[in-house]
Specification:
single chain, 458 residues, alpha/beta, Fumarate Reductase Iron-sulfur Protein, Chain B, domain 2, Rossmann fold, 24 helices, 54% helix
Length: 458
């Protein structure tokens, strides 16, 4: 058992028994579920929209090299710079080199899961560069010293009282402030940071190949401010975020909004195609796009798992997953939690260490049912389990147990030996690791042969 697996077991056991935590999550996800029903009404035929989006992502991923080269060509023509980073270390080194060149002391950063993936904030702080999260949820998490809890809603596990108490502790505010008042406190603090920062860092919801642009969707406007005020704008984005054409945004923006938050469209939707051009008054002097691999081409090289690269990070599968709703986002011990995290993390961070995530699923298929781009998530979880066995990431005792089970279950004489009570005692004492977190195995008192003969006699 890996360290990550042990930590997952401990954390999930604690959270599953935390009634207050479950109450907060169910409340927040309940509000999300109500909103999504309304958001879906904008589509005349939702299933056709989802299938079309999946087809577009299929085309983009199958021609990924061409799409990225087209993006680079168009983006650099407008004065932008593209950096290809094979892993987290390369991405961090490139960002630090840019910050050093710009004599950067302060960075403003909008919400980005990729920056969490490469642990950018930690690297900046270690190099005496202040990094400020400007998304309200991310800012709350940064104040509390926690990683994001959810792909879309970083502080989903906190109630308004939790946030008020956190602000009182960290910022000295009145603990009785309302959510609106707390938002204004954060706004007043963050507004000054935008004009003080030398560098702004954002992610990207989509890389738009044909125009050489990146598309950002948000509700607070902090991403626009993060890339408009600082003289240098750095975008960090996974290579799988590419879509072929600007025309595809007419489908993907509403889908992402509906499945992400239940809105018809998020408040701010921005396309950025490079730094400030001659004659323009707004925008950064320099713009860099870092295209991050970090294990994604390994997934691309897997014909079955490749489908997971279609994900648009709407977070719908997390909100639908019974496991996520019981143990929460932090228990996964990885940047990406929930069903999509359980699919991709073993490939991004190592099957040996993270195979347990693929087994932490009921395989109910609800994640597949709600996926905005129709990824067969529950089937990919099964494929991960198969790959972990094929790659020999199983213990000797597990192999022996399943071998014994296979032999006995395929042998009618062995299955008919003894009565149900005797079998229950033997099996439940033998397979202790199985029922540590599950109910006891329960054999029928009568064998199938006995019941069949009784039925025939009647």
């Amino acid at each position: 058992m890996s360290i990550a697996s042990t930590l997952f077991d401990k954390a999930s056991a604690v959270k599953a028994a935390d009634v207050a935590h479950r109450k907060k999550i169910n409340f927040n996800i309940g509000k999300y579920n109500s909103a999504v029903v309304q958001g879906k009404h904008q589509f005349e035929n939702l299933e056709i929209a989802r299938q079309k989006a999946k087809n577009i992502k299929w085309r983009a991923i199958e021609t990924l090299d061409l799409q990225l080269e087209t993006f680079e060509s168009a983006f650099t023509k407008r004065g932008g710079k593209v950096i290809w980073a094979e892993n987290s270390e390369e991405a961090i080194n490139e960002i630090l080199a840019i910050c050093k060149e710009k004599d950067c002391k302060k960075v403003v950063k909008s919400k980005s899961m990729v920056t969490e993936e490469i642990h950018l904030n930690k690297a900046l702080e270690e190099n005496q560069i202040e990094s400020i999260e400007t998304d309200l949820g991310e800012y709350i998490q940064q104040l509390d010293g926690e990683a994001p809890y959810h792909i879309v809603t970083p502080a989903m596990h906190k109630s308004k009282e939790d946030v008020a108490n956190l602000f009182a502790e960290k910022l000295g505010t009145d603990p009785s402030l309302s959510p609106e008042e707390l938002t204004l406190v954060a706004r007043n603090i963050l507004r000054n940071k935008y004009v003080e920062a030398e560098v702004g860092v954002t992610g990207a919801n989509f890389i738009v190949s044909d125009i050489g642009g990146i598309a950002i969707t948000e509700n607070e406007g902090n991403a626009r401010l993060s890339c408009a005020f600082p003289k240098t704008h750095i975008v960090i984005v996974g290579i799988e975020k590419v879509i072929p054409s600007i025309n595809d945004l007419g489908l993907f923006w509403p889908l992402l909004s509906t499945y992400g938050t239940g809105q018809q469209l998020t408040v701010y939707n921005t396309i950025i195609t490079g730094p400030k051009q001659p004659g323009e008054l707004d925008g950064p002097d320099d713009m860099y796009v870092i295209l991050l691999d970090n294990g994604r081409t390994d997934i691309l090289n897997n014909p079955i798992q490749r489908e997971s690269l279609y994900c648009i990070r709407c977070g719908a599968c997390l909100n639908a997953c019974p496991v996520y709703k019981n143990i929460g986002g932090h228990a996964y011990g990885a940047t990406y939690s929930g069903p999509i995290g359980s699919v991709i993390t073993p490939h991004l961070q190592g099957m040996k260490s993270y195979k347990h995530l693929s087994f932490a699923s009921s395989l109910c298929g609800n994640c597949t049912e709600v996926c905005a781009v129709k990824i067969n998530l529950h089937e990919l979880l099964l494929e991960n389990r198969h790959e972990s066995v094929e790659e020999n990431h199983t213990t000797l005792s597990e192999k022996i147990a399943w071998k014994a089970w296979k032999i006995s279950s395929m042998n009618r004489k062995m299955m008919n030996l003894g009565n149900g009570k005797i079998k229950n005692k033997i099996v439940n004492k033998l397979f202790t690791s199985w029922n540590n977190t599950r109910g006891d195995l329960n054999f029928s008192e009568k064998t199938f042969n006995q019941m069949w003969l009784e039925r025939k006699r009647k």
